[in-house]
Write a structure and sequence with these properties.
single chain, alpha/beta, eight-stranded parallel β-sheet, three-stranded antiparallel β-sheet, 15 helices, 16 strands, 43% helix, 18% strand, RNA-binding
RNA sequence: GGAGAGGUUCCCGAGCGGUCAAAGGGAACAGACUGUAAAUCUGUCGGCGAAGCCUUCGGAGGUUCGAAUCCUCCCCUCUCCA
């Protein structure tokens, strides 16, 4: 960690494929691509690290194939760091297709219905084949709402699995394994989870199971609560979060890393993010609006295309609409992180955050 | 000229005596989306604040307690034969 401003942290994280600057946003590239974009475009956007997903890549094209291709970096032609999620999230999101036991999770493929077994050991083996720089322990991400009993039980399973992941990890020197703190919205459970993981001494810690439907204030309360508990010299990754304002508030609570499908998914569906709030660019109100999405934005989309044109592309169902919108929104997220890092270095993070928060949650008319 | 089919709410198209302001698509409009089963999903889509009422199924008449649906005439499309 290089700087601190309040609880906000400014740091660097070394990986085999380069150093990344934190706080950082990691675009999601579930199946070894950030949807609609090329690695070249991601590089232009100054993306430093992207995500892949164990469950999805295991099912298709298969981790063995990715290994044969020389690992995920080679396979997708991305030479910067990659983080793979363990499939723990799919335990929740594909809840209709799986059964959890103490040993692991029996899944039914969402693609062809075939049965598969994920154990912590298996997930470590798959992530080793994929070859990401940062890998996640296999966890169970409890849904929301869930009873406290359920969350507590699930937490125990996740802790056991974390140990098994650690014990079965093949190349700890090449892949940093993060343990995942669970515990829902309950501070005592979060504390127990964090402390036991810290005892196991992971190179980094993830916070999972947030932004799954609970109130924002609960999410912020939990990250604020965890801040003093988490080791100061290790990265903290808040999984799956979030909106631009979520990122800023959580940076203020000591989070270093984020990933979220929101900028890319929403972009594909016609909503982009700007410093003035969300803009539903497919809306009729932009039909004859010949300004860029954001006249101060320096992204490729804003430098070259108007709202009216992008709206037209959405109306016509053109693929370019999704690409241009994704480029803009990712640029905005990454630029927002850049500004946050600068603000921490300049020790005016709170001021920066508060001025941004005033607008970010608006819908731009 | 002869034989036949048809004109339905923005478009296509179902309905063929009451349960029809009228199925289903499309378009349009509004919105949701947080470790991606997502170029997906939800809602609105004749008018009036609601119960309800009003106007609407090519046009004009008629039959009927009641018509988009039945009858008559008219206008217009399309197909086939001469």
């Amino acid at each position: 960690m290089k700087h601190k401003d309040g609880n906000a942290r400014r740091g660097e994280l070394k990986t085999p494929h380069g150093v990344i600057q934190t706080p950082i946003f990691m675009p999601v590239g579930t199946i070894a691509n950030v949807k609609t974009l090329t690695p070249h475009e991601l590089t232009d956007l100054k993306a430093e690290i992207i995500l892949g997903n164990t469950y999805h890549l295991y099912l298709r094209p298969g981790h063995e194939l990715v290994k044969k291709a020389g690992g995920i970096h080679n396979f997708m032609n991305w030479d910067k760091p990659v983080l793979t999620d363990s499939g723990g999230f799919q335990v929740m999101s594909l809840s209709g297709l799986r059964k959890i036991t103490q040993d692991g999770v029996r899944f039914q493929s969402h693609i062809d219905g075939s049965y598969h077994m994920f154990t912590p050991e298996r997930v470590m083996e798959i992530q080793n084949s994929l070859g990401a720089d940062i890998i996640m322990a296999f966890d169970e991400c409890p849904p929301y709402p869930a009873t406290k009993d359920y969350v507590a039980k699930s937490l125990k399973t996740t802790l056991e699995w974390a140990k098994r992941c650690q014990d079965s990890q093949k190349e700890p020197d090449k892949q940093a394994l993060f343990g995942i703190v669970q515990g829902g919205v309950h501070e005592d459970l979060r504390q127990e989870s964090a402390e036991k993981l810290i005892e196991m001494d992971f190179p980094g810690y993830s916070i999972g199971g947030l932004a799954v439907g609970e109130k924002k204030e609960d999410m912020f309360r939990i990250t604020e609560f965890l801040n003093p508990i988490m080791p100061k010299n290790k990265p903290r990754y808040l999984m799956g979060v979030g909106t631009p304002s979520d990122l800023l508030v959580n940076i203020g609570n000591g989070i270093d890393m984020f990933d979220c499908v929101m900028p890319t998914r929403n972009a594909r569906k016609g909503t982009v993010f700007t410093r003035n709030g969300r803009m539903i660019i497919k809306a009729a109100r932009y039909k004859e609006d010949f300004r860029p999405i954001d006249d101060e934005c320096t992204c490729y989309t804003c430098r070259n295309f108007t709202r009216a044109y992008i709206r037209h592309l959405f109306a016509a169902n053109e693929l370019l609409a999704m690409r241009l919108a994704s480029i803009h929104s990712l640029h905005f997220y990454l630029e927002l992180m850049h500004m946050a890092r600068k603000a921490i270095e300049n020790r005016n993070y709170n001021e920066f955050m508060n001025s941004m928060l005033k607008k970010l949650d608006n819908i731009v008319e």
